[in-house]
UniProtKB/TrEMBL annotation:
Source species, domain of life: Bacteria
Species of the source: Heliorestis acidaminivorans
Stored Gene3D superfamilies: P-loop containing nucleotide triphosphate hydrolases
Record domain AAA: where: 9-213
One Pfam family matching this protein: AAA_31
Record protein name field: AAA family ATPase
InterPro entries, per database record: AAA_dom, DNA_Partitioning_ATPase, P-loop_NTPase
Amino acid sequence: MTSIFPKEAKIISFINMKGGVGKTTLTKDLGYFLATQRNYKILFIDLDPQSNLTQSFFRKFGYHQENLLDIVDIEAEDDSILEVSSYTSGKKTIGSDISIQKLFKPGVISHLKKDDCLLKLNEYISIIPGTLKAIFSERNSNIENHLFNYINQTKLKEDFDFIFIDCPPTYSNYTISALITSDYFITPSKPDAYSVLGIEMLHEVVKRVKEEHQVYFTNKSLKSLGVIFTELAPYSKGYSDQVHEIKTSSKIQELNIHFFENHFVYNSYIPKRAEYFISDSSSSTKNDLIVLTDEFERRFSEIE
Ligand SMILES: Nc1ncnc2c1ncn2[C@@H]1O[C@H](COP(=O)(O)OP(=O)(O)OP(=O)(O)O)[C@@H](O)[C@H]1O
Ligand SMILES: [Mg+2]
């Protein structure tokens, strides 16, 4: 049944200025679960020049990015990048120009169509792939509105239920463009001694972006959906004390931050294989992902 109202995707940035806290993995597993188990249409946008999210989906769906080998030479010391070069035979190849890179070049983008940047992997999952070439793109504030404009001019919000943006751990053109485009943000965070500072810093950044780019926030707001704790190591004693300490710290209380009750729990397969997705496994972490996804869905009715 089609609705008479055009649907509007909710755009969510997964962001924390701190590196290695599980942003990419949470984006990918939560989004993939929503697509495969709940029939939502999801667009993933890989804004991180490391393009780990893209590599995971490409391995899963058997894609290979052309021209990657040239870049592999440059990055030859990085094992993860070298491995990608073995994905040459018997795989679907796409022109590496279908990517986010077109949106991070100076100049006009009004001619760009959906298919110039977006790759449909199946009925429910699409991706705007990152590319390692993006490493070389220059700092330039004139490109910050390109992602926002591209989504509007191609009416992408009508095609999806959720648009998930995986952000790099930096304050850069990439993060600014993600935030001005998003309706919400989620903060994956490790419950360690530095996370209060990281969460506080991120909220400062969001405040600043809103102040400096007011025009993008006249018809929408950029709301915090909350912090999701990520367990990147086997459960250790003292973990829940640490979580409690963070939640009750005076700085966090002042900011009135919401914390998800459920965590993104530790799964020993995740660090081993980029093409591993929790939803396709029979591990017990799939049940944990179900309750986290339920909570994610509930958040929208709580917050609106
Ligand atoms: N639930 C989990 N269980 C076990 N390992 C995990 C889990 N989530 C993430 N990891 C591992 O932790 C590491 C960091 O995760 P990830 O790359 O998702 O972080 P990130 O915040 O996106 O990093 P970056 O800031 O570099 O983009 C990776 O090796 C990943 O495989
Ligand atoms: Mg990442």
